[in-house]
Amino acid sequence: MTGSEKKGYLFVFLTGVFFALEVLGFKSIFKNEKIFPILAAFIGVFGSFLLLTPFAFFNANHRERVMITIRRDGFALLLGTFFNSIGVSLYYFALSQSELGPSAILVKTTALFNVLFGIFFLKEAFTRKDALGLTLTFAGVYLIGSMGEGISFFSSFMILASALFFSTQSFLIKRFAPEIFGIEFAYLRMGLLSFFFAMALSFLKLWALPETELVFKLIGFAFLGFFLGRAFYFEAHKSLPIGKLNSVMLIEPVFLLLIGILFLNESLSWKKILGSFGILFGLYLLVFHTRAKNQKN
Predict the structure, then answer these.
(1) Which residues of 101-134 are buried (b: 16+ CB within 10 A; e: fewer)?
(2) What is the pTM of this model?
(3) pLDDT above 70: percentage of residues in the chain
């Protein structure tokens, strides 16, 4: 393993940590507070964007990188963030209606879509192990989606759709922004997400102002996931192939599943166990085999 790959895996691991904290935070808010998920996302993301703006423009180096990102990586940034805004909206709505564990497991099918993008658009090979991984993943998705208790079929479908939208940004970055500046890209992405969320809130007429304490919580959790988590994730794109990007983060949903069962009184059933195993082991086969092929090449 090269030094660049080690750095990439470290960044992906840190991404998983910050993503887990973000999901835990927003899930606790959805469970205890009455707030529309898309409004919660807007407040958290826009607040973090405002908080970071002085650092982005008062520092000459960051300011220059922001302008380079807009000129050089603008297509991947704009289109990827548009799809991500849909993904975040779908995922947060489903998360507000579902248990933490199954939601965290299903959204990791982002790794599956990343591999499929690699196969169909980046000309990566497809083997029997890939087919087995796909079969196990889809079987696991079916088991969790048909549980009925803890997560509905509709919520499962929304999370799968969100995973597809999330994976588009990784594909666009690998294809059109290989020299990405992770910090500046994450900052600009938050600004665009805020714009898209604001448009949706205006269209749906869901504007409201929650209590100050809740606003600060939303900003804090969004800062962890939408900025720190994404900044490390985007930087990892420069060191790892698209199929490897979610490999280390497969540990994250297992952690969140245990948290949900132990501390949030979520249910434990054979469908949840088998479905989770099928998804994670299937994704492991896909990601691990992709890694082996890349090392041979």
Answers:
(1) bbbbbbbbbbbbbbbbbbbeeeebeeeeebeebb
(2) 0.84
(3) 89
